[in-house]
């Protein structure tokens, strides 16, 4: 079973290709150049070179596995111009600028605290903004809304399923 639509390729290397690989490898050609010349991938070149027991390629960074790492390069320091005081004209133009806008937007208006009284009144809001107004009817026992608004605000579990089944 082959993957994709590519024709199946033979993994056999002709003797001429193996000899050409050996010659280019020993001459120091890169795996990319060798692969391009032989019409194979870089990984195929590396795999065949290992099977032929050719010497490993020099690491471009000079690091060997298990060896000591080279010291880190110093990081360049940012070049900052020396601090120069502002000219009088620059200070005057900066002083005339309008104030910067606030960093955070203002908070949306909040409803006032609930009125405190002995007779509990329904706190269902009846306005969308200021002035805030509330229903004001007598509250249902143990609730902050009147019976009409309790029916809207609180749903018993399964109530919708029973209504849908009917």
Structure in words:
The chain is mainly alpha-helical and 166 residues long. Among the domains are: 15-51; 115-166, no CATH class. It contains six helices and no strands. Helix 2 (31-38) crosses helix 3. It starts with 14 loop residues before the first helix and ends with a helix. The model has no long low-confidence stretch (mean pLDDT 77).
Helix-strand sequence: HHHHHH
**Structural shape:** elongated
> Rg from C-alpha positions?
41 Å
The mean pLDDT is: 77
Main sheet, how many strands, which sense, barrel?
A: none
Distinct helical segment count: 6
Structural features:
166 residues, mainly alpha, elongated
Protein topology:
Blueprint: H1 15-27, H2 31-38, H3 42-51, H4 88-95, H5 147-153, H6 159-165
Helix pairs in contact: 2-3
What's the short version?
With 166 residues, the protein is an all-alpha fold. The protein has 6 helices and no strands. Among the domains are: 37 residues; 52 residues, no CATH class.
């Amino acid at each position: 079973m082959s993957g994709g639509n590519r024709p199946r390729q033979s993994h056999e290397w002709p003797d001429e290709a193996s000899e050409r690989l050996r010659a280019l490898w020993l001459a120091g050609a890169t795996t990319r150049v060798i692969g391009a010349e032989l019409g194979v991938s870089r990984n195929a070149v590396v795999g065949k070179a290992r099977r032929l027991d050719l010497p490993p390629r020099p690491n471009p960074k000079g690091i060997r596995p298990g060896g000591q790492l080279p010291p880190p390069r110093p990081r360049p320091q940012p070049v900052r111009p020396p601090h120069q005081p502002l000219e009088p004209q620059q200070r005057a133009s900066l002083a005339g600028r309008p104030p910067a806008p606030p960093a955070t937007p203002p908070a949306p208006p909040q409803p006032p605290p609930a009125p405190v009284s002995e007779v509990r009144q329904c706190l269902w809001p009846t306005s969308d903004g200021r002035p805030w107004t509330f229903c004001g009817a007598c509250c249902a026992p143990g609730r902050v809304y009147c019976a009409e608004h309790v029916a809207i605000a609180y749903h018993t579990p399964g109530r919708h399923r029973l209504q849908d089944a009917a």
